[in-house]
Amino acid sequence: MPIPCSTEACTSAATIKRSKDGSAVCATCFTRRFEEDVHETISATNLFKRGEKVAIGASGGKDSTVLAYVMKVLNARHDYGLELILLSIDEGIKGYRDDSLKSVERNKIEYELPLTILSYKDLYGWSMDEIVARIGKKNNCTFCGVFRRQALDRGAYKLGATKLVTGHNADDIAETVLMNLLRGDVARLQRCTNICTGDDGGSLPRAKPLKYTFEKDIVMYARVNKLEYFYTECIYAPNSYRNFARDYIKKLERVRPRAILDIIYSGESIAVRKEVALPVLGRCSRCGYISSQKLCKACLLIEGLNTNQLDLGIKRKVTTETKTGCGKDKTGSSCGCSNEDKVQSIDF
Fold first, then answer.
1. pTM for this model (two decimals)
2. According to the annotation, is 171 in a ligand binding site?
3. 4 forms bridges with which residues in the sheet?
4. Is 51 annotated as a binding residue?
5. Residues 88-99, buried b or exposed e (16+ Cβ, 10 A)?
6. Which part of the chain is the tRNA(Ile)-lysidine/2-thiocytidine synthase N-terminal domain (predicted)?
7. For residues 46 and 209, is the Cβ–Cβ distance under 8 A?
8. Pairing, β 340-347 against β 317-324
9. Is 16 annotated as a binding residue?
């Protein structure tokens, strides 16, 4: 016997189980509730202002494809008054990014949104394939993550966008909370759950409208609405640190789906004591990008590649100072012992 749709006044049979709340709904109600959930997130957080030019980070994958489609639908339905544009980054990964960009090109036509594509090669002088050939498959996600983030900002600035939106979903954010917790990265842990970052005037505001949307629901939405997207995983991703966090989150989800949202809520509740020193953001002396150091991470990584110092910007630099003797004894006389204290300092 068919299970009825859980939506009141709907007489259709349920065909989909929502990951977010476990409710059984028909395809039509699933689509409507998915879109209204995203709209509620946008409205509750005042994510956009009328007249803003919003760049959508488009990779051709499920998240960015659904984001672009939903943003276009909601912008028209609820009259946000936004100017939407697509922005893609070509990392230079043969057999992966070149194919996914074909999906973005189709989205451009189907959604009638202008598209701009920037490449790592043009921006940094290196493609990811060239970087991996130089450094191997370890730490390549560090290079790609740093370069991609900066490339999206550069592209958005170039297009005159006032805000950048990305397809980060609830699973992604839960993974990030876990990763920052394991790393002991207090600064990132404090801000990684923010639905909008950079709105303090330091950099281009970056928003995540799909923050509370489950990855499984995104996949189902794409299938129900017959959205074309590129679903092959990056050929370098299996070696990433995030992959281990992702596997753990998936195991938690199988036991208790709400665990994903609970991790996000826990991240939102974290408060850092006032006496804890956090990095002070400034500007890179070389490229002008936002940075807590004299040189931003991207410039350090590029310098390392160009000078064959492949650990530059990757490993923490540890210096050791040796102090001879213990200073003075209780009588005030100099101590002549040969004890050596080795003091380590870490340069980030």
1. 0.86
2. no
3. 13
4. no
5. bbbbbbeebbee
6. 53-246
7. no
8. antiparallel
9. no
Indicate the number of domains in the chain.
3
Residue 22 burial (C-beta neighbours within 10 Å; 0-12, 13-18, 19+): exposed
Q: Is 89 annotated as a binding residue?
A: yes
Helical residues (DSSP H) of 159-228, grouped into ranges? 170-183, 186-191, 215-224
Q: What is the CATH number of the domain that holds 86?
A: 3.40.50.620
235 assigned to some structural domain: yes
pLDDT 10s per residue in the chain (348 long)?
A: 789 999 999 999 999 999 989 999 999 999 999 999 999 999 999 999 999 999 999 999 999 999 999 999 999 999 999 999 999 999 999 989 988 999 999 999 999 999 999 999 999 999 999 999 999 888 888 899 999 999 999 999 999 999 999 999 999 999 999 999 998 888 888 889 999 998 765 679 999 999 999 999 999 999 999 999 998 888 887 777 888 899 999 999 999 999 999 999 999 998 888 888 878 888 999 998 888 889 999 999 999 999 999 888 776 554 444 444 555 555 555 555 555 444 443 333
Pair 212, 338 in one domain: no
Packed helices 128-135 and 140-158: angle between N→C axes, nearest 10 degrees: 160
CA angle, residues 233, 235, 236, in degrees to nearest 5: 110
Q: Which token pair is 173?
A: 């954010």
Residue 63, annotated as binding a ligand: yes
172 is in an annotated binding site: yes
Question: Is 304 domain-assigned?
Answer: yes
Please check if 59 is assigned to a binding site.
yes
